[in-house]
């Protein structure tokens, strides 16, 4: 590593043994040595923003997403009355939706209880943007919002490719 001018950061270096409980009980690795550093195994490790645990259940990752997104939703809710609907939507997309989308392909096949936790965050964010009450059904709101967003994106894409009339282009 030194010939490539790379240095190992002892505080940030970690590794995880991955396997079932039965497999992990058979293995005893107190530490590994890389260069001059002894690295002990941890229960979870972050790689490219995704927290991987030893059983690959992604419970730690989902909990981290829910905690972070809830924090941001609470803070955005405190200043919501000062924001326009468009500004609120942009802030929610940048702080909440981006966290839900990051590494979402790894979430395929998660148990329903973990998916429900993420869905609750998405529903709360939609309620915050649309000012829908907590006890109101969110599904109709999501359908209208998603349909309007899809239609707007479709028109913008066609406009960029000169596939719409001039009077629609001047509206964009």
Provide structural commentary.
With 172 residues, the protein is mainly α. The protein has helices at residues 21-26, 59-79, 85-101, 112-130, 139-160, 166-169; strands at residues 32-34, 37-39, 44-47, 50-53. The chain contains six helices and four strands; from the N terminus they run H-E-E-E-E-H-H-H-H-H. The N and C termini lie far apart (52 Å). The model has no long low-confidence stretch (mean pLDDT 81).
Short synopsis of the structure:
With 172 residues, this protein is mainly alpha-helical.
What is the strand and helix layout of this fold?
Elements: H1 21-26, E1 32-34, E2 37-39, E3 44-47, E4 50-53, H2 59-79, H3 85-101, H4 112-130, H5 139-160, H6 166-169
Antiparallel strand pairs: 1-2, 3-4
Helix pairs in contact: 2-3, 2-4, 3-4
Strand order of the largest sheet: 1-2
Shape: elongated
Strand elements, count: 4
Main beta-sheet strand count, sense and barrel state: 2 strands, antiparallel
Termini separation comes to 52 Å
Output the number of helix runs: 6
Query: Could you tell me the radius of gyration in angstroms?
Result: 22 Å
Helix % is 40-55%
Uncertain segments are none
Strand content: 5-15%
List the helices and strands in order: HEEEEHHHHH
């Amino acid at each position: 590593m030194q010939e490539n001018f790379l240095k190992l950061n002892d505080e940030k270096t970690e590794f995880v043994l991955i396997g079932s409980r039965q497999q992990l009980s058979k293995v005893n690795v107190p530490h590994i040595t890389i260069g001059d550093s002894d690295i002990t195994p941890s229960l979870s490790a972050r790689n490219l923003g995704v927290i991987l645990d030893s059983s690959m259940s992604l419970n730690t990752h989902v909990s981290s997403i829910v905690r972070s997104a809830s924090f941001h939703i609470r803070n955005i809710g405190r200043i919501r009355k000062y924001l326009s609907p468009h500004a609120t939507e942009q802030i929610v997309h940048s702080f909440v939706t981006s966290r839900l989308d990051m590494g979402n392909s790894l979430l395929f096949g998660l148990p329903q209880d973990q998916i429900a936790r993420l869905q609750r965050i998405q529903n709360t964010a939609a309620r915050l943007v649309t000012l829908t009450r907590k006890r109101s059904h969110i599904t109709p709101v999501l359908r209208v919002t998603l349909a309007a967003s899809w239609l707007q994106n479709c028109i913008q894409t066609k406009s960029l490719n000169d596939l719409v009339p001039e009077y629609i282009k001047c509206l964009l």
